């Protein structure tokens, strides 16, 4: 393809083509007229670079030398941030229309059809180049967001100061005032950026406000402003890999989010001990497994929530719970042991559930109560002093 004369004509008209393109953008695109001067200058640079690269492309006989990507080198990332891909395509369309209109004046005799075909082919190259620029910008933003979210999760698990947490969350557009529930499960595998992108996409479909981070082999998700976290998490189980999914307690604001995060992760670590655990399961349901695994927060919660609560509620509740455990969970046996009517035992068992939140007649919740009583008595018994020899 020899277009030497046509190329010379385009070189002489390059400034005029750029000026005409900008004028046409002002006429056709209302949003372009509203752009700040700095952003309009970026578009001017790109338009001028487009004409120059078109000339280089023609000189190379239309071979793909990767020169189309150089059109956006004047302002690659800044342009992608300031102008959407849809607007960029509209700008390219304006420039191509201007050049096509000038084909009769630019093309040498007998070269008009070749030039028109070259314009169409180069416009396709420019469209692909724009797509690549925006894809790179999106990947950069996605990778940066993934790093920020991973840092936020690390801060939660380390128990960093609330100011640091709020600062990192603000960079991700997170509100510090909303309630937060932290969920922990196994990551489905693959690149962390792709995992987090999948979580965000699922959250948008459900209308959820979430942040997520891959922490080792675990996927940790922060749910914001959710009133029924268990129902929400049931719709997100597909985002996790196989294994348990543990839902931490709901807390108010980022200042308390570490409590929910630590409980969820401790529950996930201890969940294999409960082979029939539901999926998802709350960190509170896993209190005895967490305590046995060495979680001090769970031990304290069991001591205060079971042993201390039953003692304060009245001695008959604690006595009834002990007798119920000793009888193997048999109602009549408990009644005989206490010399009371079975209905009295039923009433006391209901009271135990009311004050502790755990039912003595449910197998696993009875286990929670038993471990809570054991820890409470162990930690309430004075340690004997060693005698001196």
Characteristics:
Alpha-Beta Plaits; 389 residues; six-stranded mixed beta sheet; 3 domains; alpha+beta; Arc Repressor Mutant, subunit A
Q: In words, what does this structure look like?
A:
This protein has 389 residues and is α+β, with helices and mostly antiparallel strands. It has three domains: 4-139; 159-281, Alpha-Beta Plaits, CATH 3.30.70.2730; 296-380, Arc Repressor Mutant, subunit A. Helices cover 64% and strands 7% of the residues. The chain has helices spanning 4-28, 30-33, 37-59, 76-82, 85-101, 103-106, 112-158, 162-171, 192-206, 229-234, 257-270, 287-292, 296-313, 315-326, 331-338, 342-356, 363-380; strands at 179-186, 209-215, 218-224, 245-247, 251-252, 281-282. Strands 1, 2, 3, 4, 5 and 6 form a six-stranded mixed β-sheet that branches. Strand 2 (209-215) and strand 3 (218-224) form a beta hairpin. The chain is rod-shaped and about 115 Å long. The model has no long low-confidence stretch (mean pLDDT 80).
């Amino acid at each position: 393809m020899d277009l030497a004369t046509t190329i010379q004509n385009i070189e002489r008209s390059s400034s005029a083509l750029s000026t005409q393109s900008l004028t046409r953008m002002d006429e056709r695109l209302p949003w372009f007229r509203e752009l700040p001067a700095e952003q309009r200058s970026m578009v001017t640079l790109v338009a001028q670079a487009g004409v120059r690269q078109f000339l280089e492309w023609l000189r190379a006989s239309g071979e793909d030398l990767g020169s189309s990507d150089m059109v956006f080198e004047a302002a690659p990332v800044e342009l992608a941030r300031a102008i959407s891909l849809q607007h960029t395509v509209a700008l390219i369309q304006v420039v191509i229309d201007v050049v096509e209109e000038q084909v009769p004046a630019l093309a040498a005799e007998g070269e008009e059809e070749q030039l028109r075909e070259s314009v169409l082919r180069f416009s396709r190259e420019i469209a692909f180049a724009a797509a690549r620029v925006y894809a790179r910008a999106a990947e950069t933003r996605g990778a940066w967001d993934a790093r920020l979210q991973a840092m936020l999760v690390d801060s939660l698990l380390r128990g960093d100061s609330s100011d640091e947490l709020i600062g990192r969350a603000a960079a991700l557009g997170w509100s510090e005032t909303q309630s937060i529930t932290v969920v922990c499960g196994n990551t489905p595998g693959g690149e962390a950026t792709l995992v987090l992108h999948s979580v965000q996409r699922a959250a948008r479909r459900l209308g959820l406000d979430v942040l997520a981070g891959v922490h080792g082999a675990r996927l940790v998700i922060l749910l914001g402003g959710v009133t029924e976290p268990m129902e929400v998490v049931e719709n997100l189980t597909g985002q996790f890999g196989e294994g348990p999914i543990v839902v931490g307690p709901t807390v108010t604001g980022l200042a308390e989010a570490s409590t929910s995060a630590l409980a969820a992760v401790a529950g996930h670590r201890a969940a294999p001990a409960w082979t029939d655990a539901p999926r998802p399961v709350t960190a509170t349901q896993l209190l005895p497994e967490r305590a046995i695994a060495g979680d001090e927060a769970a031990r304290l919660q069991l001591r205060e929530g079971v042993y201390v609560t039953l003692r304060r509620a009245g001695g008959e509740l604690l006595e009834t719970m002990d007798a119920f455990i000793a009888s193997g969970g048999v109602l009549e046996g408990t009644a005989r042991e206490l010399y009371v009517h079975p209905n009295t035992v039923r009433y006391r068992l209901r009271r135990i559930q009311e004050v502790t939140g755990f039912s003595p007649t449910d197998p696993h919740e009875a286990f929670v109560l038993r471990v809570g009583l054991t820890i409470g008595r162990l930690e309430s018994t004075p340690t004997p002093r060693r005698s001196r020899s």
